[in-house]
C-alpha cells in the first residue's frame, strides 16, 4: 500500500467511544489525517474531541474536507451491523467525482453499489472494501496450535474496550525492545493501519475460525511473538460467536483481558444494553476454560482502558483490577506498558511447544 | 412448499455417519425418497446401509436415478466447508436437462454457477439453495429471552451426534401429547424437512446470533415449547463460533446435551481429529456457564446416540451417562423418549419469565 492522506468521515458520531475507526486512525496515523467530517462539531480539533490528535480540524461539509486535498475518504464509524447510512452516499459520490478513493470497513460493500461503482469508474478513483473477506477460507482444524511463536490474543469484557489498541501499543514496545513481533489485524481498522489482515466478523460463520487460523499461520512466519487483535466478548449477545471463533481458531498460548474500567453493561455506549458486566474473574474463568477446551491458554494480564477517569481514579482502578485478579495490570495507552510486556516475555520464555 | 419426491445424491459417501443430510431425509421423508445415488453401493437398499429406510434402492448412475422419476435431485452430503464436488456438476446438469429441480444445502450456491443456471433456465427446472441466508439479518440484542414459550436448544459434544434428530423425535412426541410445539431448523437438512428456517452456519458471523434470535421470535408465535436445532460443539476447533452464536442468540431456557456414546474425538468421523472429547460433566459446565452469561440456562437431559452399539452396550451407556451427570438420559431414536419429554414438560411447568 502507498500512504494516502485521509479525510475521515464520522458525521454526528465523532467522539471518544463512538467513532472507533476514526479514533484509531487519528491515534496511529495522525500525520496522514487531513480532517474529520462531523457537521455537529465544526471548528473543533481532534484534540478537543478525543484528547489526542492535535490540530487535526473538524469540517462540516464534504466540500470543506475535499479542499484540504485528501487522497481518500475513510469511513470512520462502524454502525451496528456495519451497513452504510443512506445519507452518506451523496457525500461519497461527491468525493469520487473529485477523484478521491474511498476506504470502507462497512459490512455493506461499496462495490455492490452501482452508483458508486459508476462514479469511481468515471473518475478513476478506487473503492476499497476492507471488510470483504478473501474467497476460499478453509474450516479451521486447529493448526494454529502448531506454530512455534508465542501467540497472544486480546479478549474483552465487551466490544470497543481497547483490544486492538492494547496490541498496537504492545507491538510498538516489543519491537522497540528488539523482539520479532507481528500484529495480526482481525478487523477493518487494524487492516487500515497494518495493511493486511481479515475482518473475521465479515466471514461466513463456518469459516470464521478458519480465517483466524490462516492469519496466525501467516503472521507467525517471521516472528517469535504474534499479537492477535481480539473481537467482541464471550458474553456479548450479538458477537460472542466471533469472539469464540477467534479464540479457537488462533489457538493463543496467552490471553490479555481488556476492560474499560467505567463500563457497567455490555454495549453500554449504545441504547438497549442489558447484560451486566460481571467481575473480571468470571471472564478469566470463561476464557481460560473454553479456550483451553481446544488449546491450553491462560490470562496473563489485564489491559484497563481508563480514558474517562482522572489520574487518581485511573490508578485506583488499575490497582483494584490487579488485586482482584492477581495479575499484572496497566492502561498501556496512558501509562507504562511494562507490566504487560514483562508478562508476555515471561510467557515467551516459558513456552514449550 | 409442495411435496416433491427426491433422488438423493450421496456418491461415495452413503453411510450411517457420513451422508448426514441423506440419512435424515431417508429417516423423516422415506415416502418421498425414490432412490439414493452411490456408485459404490449399487444394488443395496437404504435398510442395508443405514439400518432403516426399508427398500429405498441405491442406484449407480444419474440415468438410473432419473428413470425412477424423481421431482428433484437432493444433494445428500455435506462435505467439510460445504462446497460442491466438481465431478457432481455433470450429474446435476443431466438432472436439470431432464427437468428435475436441484435441492442443495452446500455453502457454494448453485445459483452462482452459470452453467447450472443456464441449464435450469433452458428446462424450467429450479435451483434451490437452502443454505442461502435471507438478506438483512440484524445483530442480535438478546430479544429471544423475552418470548413466553419454553425454548429448548440441543447442544453437542461434537458435530453430527444427533442434535437435529433428537429434536425431530421430541417434537413428534410432544405434539402427540397435545403440546403446542415448534421445531426450529437451523441447518439445511432441518430446513428441507421442516420447510422453513435459516442455515445459521452460512450467515456472516456478526449476524449469526441475530439469525438465531429471528428464528426463535418466529418459532415462538404459536407455541408453548420451541425446540431449536443445535449446531456444532462448543469445543469444535472449526465450528464453535456457530455453536455459541446459537446459544446466545436463541436464549434457551433449557439445554439437552447430545453425544454419540462411542465417539472419542471431536470430528472422529473425518481424518485429522485430535481434540479428545472430555467427560459430559465438562460440557454441562461449559454450556451452562457460558450460556447463562447471557440468559440463565440449564442442561435438563442427555440424548445419547447409540446407533453403533448392541442393545446391552447401548443400555449400559445410557445408564452410565445418567449416573455421571445425574440427568435423565435416553436414545430417543432407539428407545422411549419419555425421560427427555418429562424433563421438558417439567421445565415448561417451572418456567416463570
Count of distinct strands of chain A: 12
> What would CATH call the architecture of the largest domain in chain A?
3-Layer(aba) Sandwich
Give the radius of gyration of chain A: 20 Å
Name the CATH superfamily classification of the largest domain in chain A: P-loop containing nucleotide triphosphate hydrolases
Give the percentage of residues in beta strands of chain A.
Answer: 15-25%
H and E string of chain A: EHEHEHEHEHEEHEHHEHEHEHEH
Q: Output the number of helix runs of chain A.
A: 12
Give the assembly state of these chains. Answer: homodimer
Q: In CATH's first tier, which class of the largest domain in chain A applies?
A: Alpha Beta
* Uncertain spans of chain A: none
What is the CATH topology classification name of the largest domain in chain A? Rossmann fold
Protein traits:
2 domains; Rossmann fold; six-stranded parallel β-sheet; 353 residues; alpha/beta; 15% strand; homodimer
What does this structure look like?
The structure is a homodimer of 353-residue chains. With 353 residues, chain A is of the alpha/beta class. Chain A has two domains: 6-129, NAD(P)-binding Rossmann-like Domain (Rossmann fold, 3-Layer(aba) Sandwich); 143-350, Rossmann fold, CATH 3.40.50.300. Chain A is 35% helix and 15% strand. Chain A is built from twelve helices and twelve strands. Chain A has helices spanning 20-28, 46-50, 62-66, 88-97, 114-123, 163-176, 188-194, 208-219, 240-250, 280-291, 311-325, 338-350, and strands at residues 6-9, 33-37, 58-59, 72-75, 101-104, 127-129, 150-156, 181-184, 225-228, 254-260, 298-305, 329-330. In chain A, the strands form two sheets. A six-stranded parallel β-sheet of chain A has the order 3-2-1-4-5-6, sandwiched between helices. In chain A, strands 8-9-7-10-11-12 form a six-stranded parallel β-sheet, with helices on both faces. In chain A, helix 10 links the parallel strand 10 and strand 11. In chain A, helix 4 (88-97) packs parallel to helix 5 (114-123) and helix 8 (208-219) packs across helix 9 (240-250). Chain A starts with 5 loop residues before the first strand and ends with a helix. The mean pLDDT of chain A is 94. The interface between A and B is large, with 46 and 46 residues.
